[in-house]
Amino acid sequence: MTRRLRIRHTTKVSYAQAAVSSHNEVRMTPLTLPGQTTLDARVLVNPSTPTWSYWDYWGTQVTGFDLMEPHADLTITAVSLVETAPPDPLPAAPAWPEVADRAANSRLLEYVTPTSRTAMPDTLVERARAAASGLDPHETAVAVSSMVADQVSYIPGSTGVNTSAAEAWEQGAGVCQDIAHLTAGLLRALGLPTRYVSGYLHPEREAELHRPVAGQSHAWVEYWAGDWTGYDPTNRVRADESHVVVGRGRDYDDVTPHKGVYRGVAGGPPEVTVEFTRVA
C-alpha cells in the first residue's frame, strides 16, 4: 500500500558570536526513484539568501547557499512531500562469480572498495565470512546485518559523527550510521557491492493520518545482487514504504545532510528536528 508522507527537517546552528560569513551545502531533498516519488520539495534558509541546486557525483540533489553578512544563527528547513510504495519482490540472486565479475568491470567497483569509515579488521571479516558461509547474496546481506545488530545495540547519543565503524563494534553500541557503516564494510569485504543510504524513516509503521510525529534522519544500506536492494540493519527489515531515500554513496561523508564552513567563533552542535505527517 502506498504512503504519502510530509517531512519537515529543521537544522538550527547557533554561533557563540555572530558569524562573519558562511558557505553551506545541504542534502535534504528526497530522490524520485522506482517506488518513491517526490511530489514537492523546498529548502528554506533564515536569514534569507538565494540558493542554487545541482546533482553531485553520487546522484544526490544538493542545495547550496552563501551568507555574506554577519549572522548570529542559521536555520535551514527542508520540507518535502513524498509518495512511497512497498518494495518489489526480491529478484533471483545471481551466483557469486557473476557478482564478482560485475563488481570488477563497472562502477560497482566503488562500492566494494573500503573507505576510512568502513575499513574492517581482518578478524571481523573472518567472522562475517563464517556467518555467511554457503549463503547466496541476499542471504548473506541478512546474515551479516543480523551479526552486526546482535553485537551493536542501537543507543542514541552513544557515538559521534566521527566514530569509526570498528570503534562502534568494540563498544557494542552505536547509532544507525555506525550500524550501516559496519554492515556496508563487511559486505564489501565479502565481495558484495554495498552503498550507504541516507534518508528518513517514519517511526510508526501504522501511522495515523494527519498526525505529526517526531522522528529523525536515518541510515541503512543497499546491496547489489542483480539489482539494488535496500536493507535496514538497525531494524532488521527490508527498506519499505516507511523509508525515504535522500542520498546514496560510499559512506556518511558522501551524503552528509548539512556541511559548510564559516568565519567566526566556534559554537555548539546544531539542533536538528525531523517531523513526519502521513497525509495519505
Structure summary, number of beta strands: 16
CATH architecture of the largest domain: Roll
Roughly what is the average pLDDT, rounded to an integer? 96
Unreliably modeled segments: none
CATH topology of the largest domain: C8orf32 fold
Q: Major beta sheet, specifics? A: 5 strands, antiparallel
- Tell me the fraction of residues in β-strands, as a range: 35-45%
Give the tally of structural domains: 2
The coarse overall form would be: globular
Secondary structural class: alpha+beta
Q: H/E element string? A: EEEEEEHHHEHEHEEEEEEEE
Distance between the termini: 10 Å
Radius of gyration (CA) equals 19 Å
Number of helical regions: 5
Report the top-level CATH class of the largest domain: Alpha Beta
Helix content: 10-25%
Strand order of the largest sheet: 3-6-1-16-10
Compile the SSE list and pairings.
Layout: E1 3-19, E2 21-26, E3 36-46, E4 51-55, E5 61-67, E6 71-84, H1 96-104, H2 122-131, H3 137-151, E7 153-154, H4 165-171, E8 173-174, H5 176-189, E9 194-201, E10 213-215, E11 217-224, E12 228-232, E13 237-238, E14 243-249, E15 258-263, E16 271-278
Parallel strand pairs: 7-8
Antiparallel strand pairs: 1-6, 1-16, 2-5, 2-15, 3-6, 4-5, 9-11, 9-14, 10-16, 11-12, 12-13
Protein name: Transglutaminase family protein
Domain Transglutaminase-like: 168-235
Pfam families: Bact_transglu_N, Transglut_core
